[in-house]
Amino acid sequence: MRTAVVIGTGLIGTSAALALSGRGVRVHLQDHDPARARTAAALGAGTDEGPEGRVDLAVVAVPPAHVAGVVADVQRRGLARGCIDVASVKGRPRRELADLGGDLSQYLGTHPMSGSERSGPLAATADLFEGRPWVLTPTRDTDTEVLNLALELVSLCRAVPVVMDADAHDRAVALVSHTPQLLSSLVAARLEGAEETAVRLCGQGIRDVTRIAASEPGMWIDILSANPGPVADVLASVAADLDETVQALRSLQSSDEGERGGGAAGIEDVLRRGNSGRARVPGKHGTAPAAYEVVAVLIGDQPGELARVFADAGRAGVNIEDVRIEHATGQQTGLVQLMVEPKAAPGLSAALRERGWSIRQ
């Protein structure tokens, strides 16, 4: 691949363009808002000038509802040898393209499983896709050249290709992406009218659950409108669990010992099923999640503190597997939770104490 055009210079489109440009591909940027294309170009993602002839690959990075129309336009203009999209829904755009009379052999639906609660070209990074799954949904109609171009794009972005059926993909993302967004927003919405004293008690748990609730509503309306059925199915299942959990909690208020026991069993059941489901979420390098030990370090909110604690951990010969930061409300301090292999935790705690760090159990 020597040339590409990226249509839609938001987070995903600009990140892909940055990765391609950084690896020697000449990228042409287009957007319905020329200012966004100019911003992406200024970031080094490519040029906002049109290509002189046909490019190797067109990457359509627009909301799902607009994918089919844009792809059909690309094909009518003969803009590229092959065309892919990167929208988060795959079944409906393909069916809509067929209804428009588009050439399905020269089109491939794809979806990089990477993103952020931030949007727009200024949120883009060239390494956004590194190590992340990138779903490809070829069919028997897909031209081999188009599939190879898509695989080359995935490779240049240093992502991991995953081949799926389009409708199976849509059911999967309803479970692992679209429903979590709505549930995060539902929990965060409870905070809107909460007492200030309650909000000041927010800790890492509520921060983790509500992080993606900061996402742009307009973008998610586009996504959910293109995949409403599978999302509704998952939410209906969650709603059934919620109803049972509410009843179990009510039972815990009962004066009847047997009813309280039944309520506790109901709560234990959902918690244990949650444990089982969480254990299936891939961990580091796509392997089963490991049980790490947490070494919590109190740090000040000032430049260089994080770098210093990481450097001291490195001097102790300990690999940090994961990290979380919990900020203290109203204080200029926070807890850095260093996740390490259990056998390394005692030595790391001792080494950090020797270097003057305050360790919290």
From TrEMBL:
Keywords: Amino-acid biosynthesis, Aromatic amino acid biosynthesis, NAD, Oxidoreductase, Tyrosine biosynthesis. One of its GO terms (molecular function) is prephenate dehydrogenase (NAD+) activity. Its EC number is 1.3.1.12. Residues 1-283 form the Prephenate/arogenate dehydrogenase domain. InterPro entries: 6-PGluconate_DH-like_C_sf, ACT-like_dom_sf, ACT_dom, NAD(P)-bd_dom_sf, PDH_C, PDH_N, Preph/Arog_dehydrog, Prephen_DH. Residues 252-285 are annotated as: Disordered. Residues 294-361 form the ACT domain. It comes from the Bacteria. Pathway: Amino-acid biosynthesis; L-tyrosine biosynthesis; (4-hydroxyphenyl)pyruvate from prephenate (NAD(+) route): step 1/1. It holds the Pfam family PDH_C. It catalyses: prephenate + NAD(+) = 3-(4-hydroxyphenyl)pyruvate + CO2 + NADH. Belongs to the prephenate/arogenate dehydrogenase family. This is Prephenate dehydrogenase. It comes from Streptomyces meridianus.
